[in-house]
Every structure is written in structure tokens, then in C-alpha cells.
Amino acid sequence: MRVMGVDPGLTRCGLSVVEGRRGRQVVALDVDVVRTPSDQPAAQRLLAISDAVEHWLDTHQPDVLAIERVFSQLNVTTVMGTAQAGGVIAVAAARRGIDVHFHTPTEVKAAVTGNGAADKAQVTAMVTKILGLQAKPTPADAADALALAICHCWRAPMIARMAAAEALAAQHKRDYLAKVKAAR
Questions:
Q1: What separation in angstroms does the CA of 41 have from each of 15, 38, 76?
Q2: End-to-end CA distance of the chain
Q3: How far apart are CA 14 and CA 82, in angstroms?
Q4: Active site located where (predicted)?
């Protein structure tokens, strides 16, 4: 499975592509950070991010996108920019029929470090180790994008099993309600 991990942001947007292999083996294919100047209008910054993401989607043809979910931040301006960047990226993937999954920072940290409260240095160290990289990915947005992709590779089988179980439960409920209605 080829996963594109995205750490959205207006100033720095981390992009990565990894390939999940047998078991928990993950191989990094590409990583970069798209930067936009803070003195540009938000629409122009979003356009630059959109253009870069479209290029990555066309070049790498991922099976799925893993985007960091905006969970909570105290700075409303930062939250808005992050959410807008994530939305632009999700739309680009949806246009191509690529599944998009959102993961919280805590889920990502727990997946790659075993600790949902890990700091950026711990995440970067584990990403470097998991992928067998010669050097730590920098800046932190690059490491975070790789961590998102790794997280999704490792969580995807569970996500698929849960979706199948939920679909089966919904079908059983429909069947049961149909029997109850027919018995009346």
C-alpha cells in the first residue's frame, strides 16, 4: 500500500510518501516540505499548497492519504490555516478517488513511539529508526508527515476490520428490524 502522509499547515506543509510492505515494514519513497510566505494572501498560499499536492498525487499515485486531524490548538489563526490546508489537500485526493483518512496527533505519536504524549524529538527519532534513514528528516513537518504515513500503514488493517464489522452490524440490525416489522 502506498500512503501519502500530510502534515498540513499554511507556512509549512509536510508531504511524504511511504510504501507499506509485509508486516510492519515501511519504506520511505519521498518527503518534502512546501513553504509559503506568511505575507501572501491566504488564498495564494492555499493555491501553492494545492499545486504542490496535485503534483505529488500525479507523480506518486498514492492509494490513500493520511492527513493530520486538527485536534485543538490555542491559536485560532493557526487552527484555521491548518484546517484550510487540510481541506484543500483532501479535496485534491477526493477528485482522484483516493481515500482520505484523518489521524489525530495523539494517534500518530502512539503508533510510532508507543506514547501518545511523545515530543517532536521522540517522533523524529522513531521515524528515523523505523524507516532506517541515514539522517533525521528535517524540519519537524517532514518527520510528522512520515509519521502520519507510517501510522496509517500500521492502522489500516484495523481500520478495514472495524469498517467491515460496522457494516456487518448495520446489516444485522436492518435484518432484525425487517423481521420485527414483518412480525407485527
A1: 22, 8, 17
A2: 49
A3: 11
A4: 7, 68, 141
Asked if pLDDT for residue 144 goes beyond 80, the answer is yes
Can you tell me the distance from the alpha carbon of 65 to that of 152, in angstroms, rounded to the nearest whole number?
A: 9
CA dihedral 117, 102, 4, 58 (to 10 degrees): -160
Which numeric CATH code is attached to 2-159?
Answer: 3.30.420.10
pLDDT of the residue at 180:
92
Read off the pTM.
0.87
Q: DSSP states of 95-145 as a string?
A: HTT-EEEEE-HHHHHHHHHS-TT--HHHHHHHHHHHHT-SS--SSHHHHHH
**Binding site members for Mg(2+):** 7, 68, 141
Choice among 141, 144, 166, 175 that is catalytic: 141
Q: Is 7 a catalytic residue?
A: yes
Among residues 30, 54, 58, 68, the one annotated as catalytic is 68
Residue extents of the structural domains in the chain: 2-159
> Is 51 an active-site residue?
no
